[in-house]
Fold this protein.
Amino acid sequence: MIIANWKSNIVDINQWTHDFHDEYIVNERLQSTIFGVAPPSLYIEKMRRMEQSHFAFDDGELGCQEVLCGVQDVDHSYGSRTGAISVDMVIDTGCNFAIIGHSERRDLFNEDNDLIKEKLKSLKNKVMAVLCIGETKEENDKGITKDVLKQQLDIVKEVELDQSFTVAYEPVWAIGSGLTPQPKDINEIHKYIKDVVQSNSANKLIPRVLYGGSVTDKNAESFFMEEFVDGALVGGASLDGKTFANIVNIYNSTK
Ligand code: 13P
């Protein structure tokens, strides 16, 4: 699974879709690769319209598949909450996934684990959750990465998780910095995340785990070669349709 997180950037969706389509290599493996875009919420409708004209034109017969559309965050409640986007609104607009717990939300919007747990529960397994976790540079230097991740994963304790539940391991120090952990270290952390979720969730689910943090079409292969890396959550490199398509192509040819 490869997900584009456009964050608060304006993207020319028309151009992006054309560029993606030009670069994207269609093959039979394609059917099994899920990929999606989380545009700023204001552009979801536009994104879905572009998707429909570019990707759903052949009923899937020729190997074209739907591009999932998702939100970058979701509110845990609904009603009189100015500016918030509820889970029912996500479902109503036909979105398929919601990113929750992104480090930018934790840091800039003071979201804590309790709130993120409420968000996870409010998704009610109706919308695919992509839960972001990751350690800061300081925590990494102190060698407490696994402790930090375990604490962030506390929110799955006794929660019955849907099969689609996805964790994105995004070291805070790797986001937008051009720095990344070594692929073998990412692999070890991903195995750890799968073990922690499996032993804590009510239904012993083994989640899909994506890597995020300075993923580009130059380094993606080195991550996708690793056994426990199930895809990527891509920020900056996803703003260009061709580059994002290349990352999806690399995933298709590696996994
Ligand atoms: P970059 O790919 O720009 O480092 O961002 C990663 C990220 O935060 C995706 O959610």
Summary: The first strand starts at residue 2 and ends at 5. The domain at 2-254 is CATH 3.20.20.70 (TIM Barrel).
